[in-house]
């Protein structure tokens, strides 16, 4: 190749490597201004040489990309399911740097005798196809884990030949035969644990009941299913309970006395623990005109839960508290979580308190952390505080209106202005609230209201968390940061394509900030596109995590952030408390050397327990919701498409926020292609399109409280 205008191997290889997605010959030719048949032949030959050298590899549609560690066929482990119900996996072995690429599993082709869907934990042999540098599709060749022997949670139903076990996992459609000798003490409708046995007569998979958990006729069983299905520990070791029972409030000693300051707790009416209290006043310092002085006091869990103790080991295993509509699984025993570590009004409580000073623009200008003794002046709810602020105080808030509540809102106004100027990602998404009556049944499912009182406490907690992270950073003290990375390049490309398609292009700024997304959200506010755009932007975001390596918090537009304000219910906050106590010399309960060497491992573990809790809480709400709607099968509902996948449409009902599936097989007669960029199913023959967030009318065809699944069909197919 001697033509002087033609790029060399190094130039073309550099172009392929710098691209965020695989590129074809057309893009390469356009980039280097190549044209004519001679140029095309030279380019074809050069790419063939690069491929022969192993410098690039050819993917789908003959597009070129840097070589990846993943082979064309690999053994995979199924690791999770996303919001659209699609399974993801990772290579069983991975020797590359960093995390392996993401792998999505294509739906399996149905075959005779195969009625068990894939589930988390399965091992399989699959053929891989690259979508881009960090994303693969996998098509299952065969499973290699036999009958997936292990333990299963299910509901026992009697039958003529003994009984059947119906798994609670909605992805697992197999019914297991339970022969009479394997029934144990299970009765009809009981929730049981069972061991999966080798296939019996006619290939029917069998199970042996090993533990009876209770009857599914009791609505409170739905939380129990979620707890056991996700492996959430529920029983504290005796030694941990003993340590909690022997604990006592410390004497004042070297602590700062905060008992005369009217700190108040502000939580939801259904809150089960109170671990933060707040107070504010105008700053009297003439150097800070129109500034504010805040105090955020947090329960001093580190005083009671010492590194290496039985309490500490139990709290670490749980990682966090888990909250269900009818119960909580606390991280700490009740003697602490609802006792000594709960900031009850009128009772002395040990605390760690940040004094925070903000200027007239809401900027945190300085802070001081103390170990104190406080006495809450009142336990308030968000609704009470909002009503008082709006001029409707009750007998509890009236005496506090001018001295406590009004200054809190004054300080909040400054912090809210700073947040707006900073440009955070403002996704104020609705949250389902399930209200349980005294009989344990669902009385109501509604969207949880959010007031300025909610946002006020959120801003105070963020300010304290920032202060905690600043102390760690300034003193080069290892700890756990709450990190939130920028969206990945593949997600950004998909998001840009989608937004461009609906007429709201997102620029290719090298320094993408949350404000770029917020501007798009404001543009579509009040339009039919608003719910759709919010959903797609949310799905483009990375998942927050815990790590000793600070990369900042993208969503909050903060350079440093650490969870400090909820040590009753998050072990990560306890780690931060201990790190602060150690570096500031605040007494006993500081971070120990053994923990210092394990912070990366601890961060990964706590990120995992957080995801486990979220999945369990979501599953329980789904089951309660299905139970609530079970007697309304056949009724018509309004909703929106909340997810689009190859196998159907996920619909979220307007009335309750309930989610269910419209199987693709029930859509009007056509073959539908899944347009991932447009988040749509498109009919090949009719062009009929079902797009994410589009309004739909549906009929509820099935509601299964045990699995938490619901099926719909379109009410107006045409």
Automatic annotation (TrEMBL):
InterPro entries the UniProt entry points to: CSD2, NA-bd_OB-fold, RNase_II/R, RNase_II/R_CS, RNase_II/RNase_R, RNase_R, RNR_Ribonuclease, S1_domain
GO CC terms of this entry: cytosol
Subcellular localization: Cytoplasm
Catalyzed reactions per annotation: Exonucleolytic cleavage in the 3'- to 5'-direction to yield nucleoside 5'-phosphates
Gene3D superfamilies hit by this protein: Nucleic acid-binding proteins (2.40.50.140)
Role, per record: 3'-5' exoribonuclease that releases 5'-nucleoside monophosphates and is involved in maturation of structured RNAs.
This protein's name: Ribonuclease R
The organism of origin for this protein: Azospirillum humicireducens
Phylogenetic classification of the source organism: Bacteria, Pseudomonadati, Pseudomonadota, Alphaproteobacteria, Rhodospirillales
Gene behind this protein: rnr
């Amino acid at each position: 190749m001697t033509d002087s205008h033609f790029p060399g191997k190094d130039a073309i290889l550099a172009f392929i490597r710098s691209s965020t997605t695989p590129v074809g010959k057309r893009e390469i030719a356009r980039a280097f201004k190549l044209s004519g048949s001679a140029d095309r032949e030279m380019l074809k030959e050069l790419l063939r040489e690069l491929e022969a050298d192993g410098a690039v590899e050819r993917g789908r549609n003959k597009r070129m990309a840097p070589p990846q560690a993943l082979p064309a066929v690999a053994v995979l482990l199924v690791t999770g399911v996303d919001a659209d119900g699609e399974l993801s996996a990772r290579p069983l072995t991975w020797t590359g740097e960093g995390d392996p690429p993401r792998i999505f599993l294509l739906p399996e082709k149905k075959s005779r005798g195969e009625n068990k869907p894939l589930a988390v934990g399965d091992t399989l042999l699959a053929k891989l196809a690259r979508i881009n540098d960090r994303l693969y599709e996998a098509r299952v060749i065969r499973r290699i884990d036999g009958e997936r022997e292990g333990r299963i949670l299910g509901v026992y139903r009697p039958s003529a030949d003994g009984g059947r076990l119906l798994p609670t996992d909605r992805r697992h459609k197999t019914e297991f035969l339970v022969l009479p000798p394997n029934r144990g003490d299970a009765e009809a409708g009981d929730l049981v644990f069972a061991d999966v046995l080798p296939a019996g007569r006619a290939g029917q998979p069998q199970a042996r009941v090993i533990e009876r958990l209770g009857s599914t006729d009791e609505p409170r069983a739905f939380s129990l299913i979620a707890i056991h299905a996700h492996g959430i520990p529920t029983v504290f070791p005796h030694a941990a309970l003993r340590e909690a029972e022997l604990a006592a409030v410390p004497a004042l000693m070297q602590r700062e006395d905060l008992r005369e300051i009217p700190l108040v707790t502000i939580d939801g009416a259904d809150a089960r623990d109170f671990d933060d209290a707040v107070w504010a006043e105008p700053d009297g310092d003439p150097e800070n005109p129109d500034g504010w002085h805040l105090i955020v006091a947090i329960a001093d869990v580190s005083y009671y839960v010492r590194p290496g103790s039985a309490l500490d080991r139990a709290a670490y295993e749980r990682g966090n508290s888990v909250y269900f509509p009818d119960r909580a699984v606390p991280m700490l025993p009740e003697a602490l979580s609802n006792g000594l570590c709960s900031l009850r009004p009128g009772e002395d409580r040990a605390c760690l308190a940040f004094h925070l000073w903000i200027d007239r623009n809401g900027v945190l200008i300085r802070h001081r952390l103390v170990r104190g003794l406080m006495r809450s002046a009142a336990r308030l709810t968000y609704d009470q505080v909002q009503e008082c602020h709006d001029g409707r105080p009750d007998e509890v808030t009236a005496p506090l209106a001018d001295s406590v509540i009004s200054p809190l809102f004054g300080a909040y106004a400054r912090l809210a202005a700073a947040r707006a100027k900073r440009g955070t990602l403002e996704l104020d998404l609705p949250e389902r609230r399930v209200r349980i009556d005294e009989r344990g049944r669902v009385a109501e499912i509604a969207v949880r209201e959010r007031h300025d009182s909610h946002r006020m406490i959120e801003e105070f907690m963020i300010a304290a968390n920032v202060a905690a992270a600043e102390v760690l950073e300034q003193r080069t003290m290892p700890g756990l940061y709450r990190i939130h990375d920028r969206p990945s390049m593949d997600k950004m490309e998909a998001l840009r394509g989608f937004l461009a398609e609906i007429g709201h292009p997102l620029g290719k700024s090298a320094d993408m900030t949350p404000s770029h997304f917020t501007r798009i959200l404001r543009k579509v506010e009040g339009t039919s596109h608003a719910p759709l755009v919010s959903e797609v932007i949310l799905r483009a975001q990375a998942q927050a995590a815990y790590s000793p390596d600070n990369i900042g918090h993208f969503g909050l537009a903060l350079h440093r952030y650490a969870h400090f304000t909820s040590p009753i219910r998050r072990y990560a906050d306890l780690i931060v408390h201990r790190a602060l106590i150690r570096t500031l010399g605040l007494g006993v309960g500081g971070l120990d050397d053994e923990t210092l060497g394990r912070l990366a491992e601890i961060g990964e573990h706590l990120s995992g327990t957080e995801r486990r809790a979220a999945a369990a809480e979501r599953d329980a709400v789904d089951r309660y919701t299905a139970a609530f709607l079970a007697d309304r099968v056949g009724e018509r509902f309004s909703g929106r498409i909340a997810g689009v996948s190859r196998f159907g449409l996920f619909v979220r009902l307007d009335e309750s926020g309930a989610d269910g599936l419209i199987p693709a097989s029930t859509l009007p007669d056509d073959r539908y292609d899944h347009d991932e960029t447009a988040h749509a199913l498109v009919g090949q023959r009719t062009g009929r399109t079902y797009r994410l967030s589009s309004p739909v009318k549906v009929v509820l065809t099935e509601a299964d409280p045990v699995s938490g699944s619901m099926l719909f069909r379109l009410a107006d197919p045409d």
